[in-house]
Every structure is written in C-alpha cells, then in structure tokens.
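cron nightly-structures :: item 1 of 1
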Amino acid sequence: MKGFVFHGPGEASWQDVPDPGLKEPTDAIVKVGAVTICGTDLHILKGDVPEVRPGTVLGHEAVGEIVEVGSDVRTVRPGDRVLVSCITSCGRCRFCREQSYGQCRGGGGWILGHLVDGTQAEYVRVPYADLSVHPLPAAVRSEDAVLLADIFPTAYEVGVLNGCVRPGDTVAVVGAGPIGLAAIATARLFAPERIIAADLVPARLEAARRLGADAVADVREAPGQLVADLTDGLGADVVIEAVGRPESFELCTRMVRPGGHVANIGVHGKPATLALEDLWSKNVTITTGLVDTYSTPTLLRMAAAGRLPTQQLVTHVLPLEQMEEAYDVFSQADETGALKVVLGGERHEVAVPVA
C-alpha cells in the first residue's frame, strides 16, 4: 500500500509501505476513505515533535471502513463505516476511567502518526478499536466527518470548555486557522455576548466572520486595543490561543481580564514568556491540554443534525494519492486560501477556496 512517510525535518514522501496487520486482539484494520492534514503534522515536519521517528506514516484523523478486527473487538465489525479518532484509549488506566483519554497510560493517547504509523495511508491499524473508532451516521459525509476526528473536539474541549465560556462572555480567539475557526463555531453554542478573532490573513478573518465572529482584527494592528475598546478597558473573559507561537500566547495573556481564562490550544515548539510580574495578582486561569475526545459522540450527533458548520471549513478535496500536493496547498495557506484540505471523501476534486 501507499502511505505518507516522515523521513526527518523537512522531508516526507508518498511511497510504498508494508500493509498493516493485526498485532493485538483489540486492534482493527481500517481502509481509509478520507483523511485530512493537521497543523500538528506541519509541526512534525518542522522538527517540533522530536518523538516522531523517521519512517513513521503521518496522520491522526480519518474516516474509513473496517476490514478486519481482532478477536476482542466487540463494538464494530468488517463493513462498518467509522471515524478514526486522533486519540487512542485503552479504557482501563486511571486517566481513561476519568475520560482523560489523551493522557492514557495503557498504550493509548496521541499515538497515531506520532508513536505508531498513522492514517495518511490506504490502510491503518487502530489499537483499542472499541473506544478509538466511532460508527458514523449515514447522514454525515466523509469530508465533514473527518473534521470530528481532531479539530472540532480539540477546539471545543481544550478551547471552549477549558476556557469556561459562558453566556454573555467576551471571547477572543487568537488564530483563525481551522482550530480557531472551530473554536469560534463551538463558542457560539454558549451564547457569548461577542466573539473577537485575530489573525494575519484577511481570508481567514473573513471566514471567522462567516462562522460567527462579531469583530476581527489583524494581529499586527493592536488587537488588544480592540478588545479593550469593546470591553470598557476590562479585557476578554476568555482568550483562546490557537496558533502555537510565543508571541500569540503572550498576546493572549495581555488581552484577558482579571479573573478571566486563557485557554491554550496551540502546539508550541518554542518557550513563551509568562509575565508573572503582571499576572500574579490578576486571578487569571491558564489552561493547556491535549484533546481527550470525550466530546466526539456529542459532536457527531450535532453534525448529523446539521448543527456544526463543517462544510464551511473544507476548502480543498483531493484524491488520496495527491498527498504531497495537499501538503503544499495546506502549508501555503496564505496564498492558497486553504483551511482544511481533505483527501478522499465523496468528491475528489479541488473545491473552491474560501475567499
């Protein structure tokens, strides 16, 4: 089969790799129907995630069909259409029992495309299949469902829920890429007074408006002042960091009000300054997190009911074998207008980019 293999910082290729086989009785083999590229994959290619060894097939999000299951798998069977979660759960360790699946100590957590071969291939082995794949409603298209493997649960859990968004809040989202846009969409579920989005790219700020942002700002043009102006100088109740750069995190800590929340989603490859000389007396709560995906079943029900704007985030759909071209499109989002690039799915053409 073919897979997208990481060879070291800046080097990866779509190439022949061995077919996966069952290794444990809890495994399932999934024929991949649709995958997408995550910002974390770009961090891996930059060398920001040193645990990923050369020779690893990348990817941790997919929709596909079960083709084989181990003897202990009970919840799915060959022929089932499933969502492959970005997080694998053993279901037995302390953290899994607390629904903190991202911290699994039984061989799970974020392992696909990280510690074991991932989903950007024609087939993938999924450990602990009973808790790590989700049967898909027929009403949800593959290119929409694949967004529920990572970006929507990540934005919802690590951004909106960790940030404790409440009705009437002012929510600021720094970074209007796919994660930031999903955070805007899911923050709206809690009826905040206003949502403010900050980014460098005009097309992403326009997308943020379409998904529910009430105000937008170029991060080069003092977004903190806009937040201050809209809150009578108080600051935002919740600030969500969705970039993963020191300057964006530091901006978030300057935009939050006393007693507010900063929810960091971004994957950071460099240290950031925490200005405790300013923050120590402000009662600010700062949260970090790897997604646990405990919300995936809820989000799937919402998607099936048409309550999530998944289609607005998919700007490009290409055949699976165009993986290298897809990475080029996604990594040059400023020029291509790419938000989410999906490979496979029900349609195999380049969709119209978001203007």
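cron nightly-structures :: done
The longest strand covers residues 28-36.
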